[in-house]
Design a protein that fits this description.
Elements (H helix, E strand, L loop, with lengths): L1 H5 L22 H9 L4 H14 L1 E3 L8 E3 L5 E3 L7 E8 L10 E9 L6 E5 L4 E5 L3 E4 L2 H19 L5 E6 L1 H9 L3 E5 L17 E5 L1 H9 L8 H19 L2 H4 L2 H12 L3 E3 L4 H10 L8 E5 L2 E6 L5 E5 L1 H12 L3 H7 L4
Parallel strand pairs: 1-12, 4-9, 6-13, 7-15
Antiparallel strand pairs: 2-3, 4-5, 5-6, 7-8, 9-12, 10-11, 14-15
């Protein structure tokens, strides 16, 4: 298994047009997965499990259970659907130190099929214009600002017609600490950026870049200098996180107790999950995914038709209603493999 992951390092994060693959879900799964399956010493495993349990905070991130969801076309579907895998919502906030309110800058729905053969991640651009329960239409990340994780979950459930089983939220600072914990990463940039040109700003060149934690944080935050703004930033985040995932799963890290401990500590520090997602649940899920390889982690972007302007003048991504209907159906019927095979990221 170690060699399966290590052999991927030479092509970490190279852009792929048809089926870009990503690994954001490692924030939940890989930390416990590494602790349980990649460390031989039982006492050390126990120590890591205790560290993970001490870092993670549980909170009320899920809304009250709803019997059904109302889709964008007005029709309803029952919730939940049985035997079709599980759905996790990953929320990443770009709040800076000292900020008390923020919008969600990373919104990823993770689908784990019933047969545990893959991990499928759907990235939702933060400016996607959708209906928010009780709030009318707005950018999808406004749901988090209006009502935190529970309202964002309700928004997603109505958008797709699927139940969100679990939620995890973290912040961008985790990118920095995890990157430093593994000794930095090498990531491919589709576009160069100056970082603003100030004395503390970090330029990124087109092509391969070796990034430490501070540089990684700047890399995933930049959008103003990129050709497609938040969409381009989303692709940067995809490239970076796959690079980080593969570095964390490399022999260099998983055979080094110090690096492994530091990574697990960084991956779970300030991680907040719903009350049903305890360490035991994460451990069981991680073990069930033990045969998943990098090529089985598939990333797609939620469908949109282009860019527009909201009534308040803000820039938005316009929802592709027929495309989102197809995505929701694939999730509800546990056929995301078929959807990912034909989808193309805009």
């Amino acid at each position: 298994m170690l060699d399966d992951f290590a052999s991927e390092d030479s092509r970490v994060a190279r852009p792929e047009r048809r089926r870009p693959r990503w690994g954001r879900r490692f924030v939940i799964v890989v930390a416990s997965f590494l602790a349980l399956t990649l460390v031989a010493a039982g006492g050390f495993v126990f120590f890591l499990n205790q560290k993970v349990a001490g870092n993670i905070t549980q909170d009320d991130l899920l809304p009250q259970a709803a019997p059904s969801a109302t889709l964008p076309d007005g029709s309803t579907v029952p919730l939940p659907q049985g035997g079709v895998g599980e759905n996790y919502l990953i929320i990443g906030s770009d709040a800076r130190p000292g900020e008390t309110a923020s919008r969600s800058d990373v919104i990823v729905l993770v689908h784990v099929p019933e047969d545990k053969s893959a991990v499928q991640l759907v990235h939702f651009p933060r400016d996607l214009y959708v209906s928010i329960p009780g709030r009318g239409k707005n950018k999808i990340n406004a749901a988090y600002a209006f009502g935190g994780a529970p309202l964002l979950v309700s928004t997603m459930q109505n958008l797709l017609g699927v139940r969100i089983d679990h939620v995890a939220q973290t912040d961008f600072e985790g990118f920095r600490t995890m990157t430093d914990a593994v000794g930095g990463v090498r990531v491919f940039a589709e576009e160069a950026s100056s970082g603003g040109g100030g004395p503390t700003d970090i330029p990124i060149k087109e092509g391969w870049n070796d990034l430490n934690g501070d540089q990684a944080l700047a890399f995933v935050r930049e959008r103003y200098e990129l050709s497609e703004g938040d969409i381009s930033r989303g692709r940067r985040q995809q490239a970076f996180i796959k690079a980080l995932m593969l570095k964390a799963l490399s022999r260099e890290v998983i055979t080094n107790p110090i690096k492994l401990t530091n990574f697990i500590d960084a991956a779970t520090d300030n991680l907040v999950v719903d009350r049903g997602l305890d360490v035991g649940t994460m451990r069981s899920e991680a073990i069930s995914l033990r045969n998943v390889r990098s090529g089985d982690v598939v990333f797609v972007t939620a469908p949109f038709t282009g860019f527009g302007t909201a009534p308040d003048g803000g820039s938005i991504e316009i929802l592709d209603e027929s495309g989102i209907s197809a995505l929701g159906k694939a999730l509800r019927t546990d056929k995301m493999d078929d959807y990912a095979d034909v989808s193309v990221t805009p």
